[in-house]
Amino acid sequence: MSASLSSTVLETSRPLGERVRLARARCGLTRAELGARVGVSARTVAAYETGDVPWGAGPVLADALDVPEQYLARPSVPHVDPDRLCFRAGHRVTRRQRGIAASCAATAIEIDRWIDARFDGPDLDLPSYSGEGPELAALLLRDHWQLGAAPLPNLVQLAEARGVRVFSLPTSAEAARAFSLWTDEIPLVFVSRRQTPEETRFDLAHELGHLVLHDACVDGHAMLEREADRFAREFLVPRDAVEYEFDPRPSVDSVVSTAARLGVAPELLASVAFEAGRMGERDYLDLRRGLTARGRGGDGRVTRHETSWTFAHVLSGRQGFGTDAAAIAADLAVPVADVHALTFGVELRAVRNGEPVVGCAPYRRAPLALVPNTVR
Ligand SMILES: [Zn+2]
Fold first, then answer.
1. What's residue 350's pLDDT?
2. 228 alpha carbon – ligand 1 mean position (Å)
3. pLDDT, greater one: 368 or 255
4. Mean pLDDT to the nearest integer, 24-37
């Protein structure tokens, strides 16, 4: 970098300290590292972040932080405290990774508000089952959403149709694996797609469990994590489904195909069936050996990650208002790559495939009815 804050007089809009902090977190930089990039001390960066940013520092800071200059001057910063997020990856998430995840969440909140101001999405329909057992909560939510014991073909779109915002995590934040938060009484869930499609579905169900069961999240709290896992198992593989669909002495092939229909890992289905008393221990162990021999990448498993219908719809440009990731990025002054990364890359996929949108029909039980309420 040729320019530095200590040697350059600049004349543009004044960056906001909070934005500097957020942009620094997005890059996973310490104050000292940012300071080294712009030629000031860590103490000076700390002063910037508490509001004492020099006039005209925008270009150098924006360059060092790899954001458009306007980003640093935009007011109204969504506040996401990394220490109040509960990451699916638990204690393995480093301080730096926590900051990156929180900065992604802040951008996602801005994207959500942007969409919300222009489209009428579904109202939130997510009861609280705080105080209930996880299995009962899963059954109650299935019942409330009128799902019966049927397989859930697309969990992302199911959640979206009930007013839950689901975002994909950028590669830089995938170490967090998954997390959820409430903002303005709207729940947002973030999932990584570094895992297998089955694991990502499980992670989303796990986060739904946190949202309905837990009023407050205590990061790494083993009991809360176990409860969210138990909720996810029951929600994805209800006991009734095992009762009716599980052959007591199943072949490996039949377990793999039933699991694929339910959108879960065959190992999970086998374990639920065993715990539900649908098979004996010897058959269960044989089955586990068969699944291990077949390998986690074996034929017949779920191979495609689910994607969002909301973003496919909003970013398709089909509304005729020129709505696309570039428009959102320009309004929010964020890199367009950040918008793509948080929105399942639906626009990129559409371009790659040469079609407007691929595989993104509304969830069949409750189609989203996004209606633009302003014309850009
Ligand atoms: Zn959790």
1. 67
2. 6
3. 255
4. 94
Each domain of the chain, given as residue ranges in start order, spans 17-77
The CATH class that applies to domain 17-77 reads mainly alpha
Q: Is there a contact between 212 and 129 (Cβ–Cβ < 8 Å)?
A: yes
Token pair 């009861």 is found at 127
Neighbouring residues of the ion ligand 1, judged by CB less than 5 Å: 225, 228
Contacts of 137 (CB under 8 A, 6+ apart): 129, 209, 212, 213, 231
- What distance in angstroms lies between residue 119's CA and the mean position of ligand 1's atoms? 30
pTM of the model: 0.88
Output the CA 193–ligand 1 centroid distance in Å: 16
Calculate the CA 19 to chain-centre distance. 22
CA of 231 to the centre of ligand 1 (A): 11
Residues 72-115: tens digit of each pLDDT = 999 878 989 998 898 999 888 999 999 999 999 999 999 999 99
User: Which 3 state secondary structure label does DSSP give 183?
Assistant: strand
Distance 130 CA to ligand 1 centre (A): 15
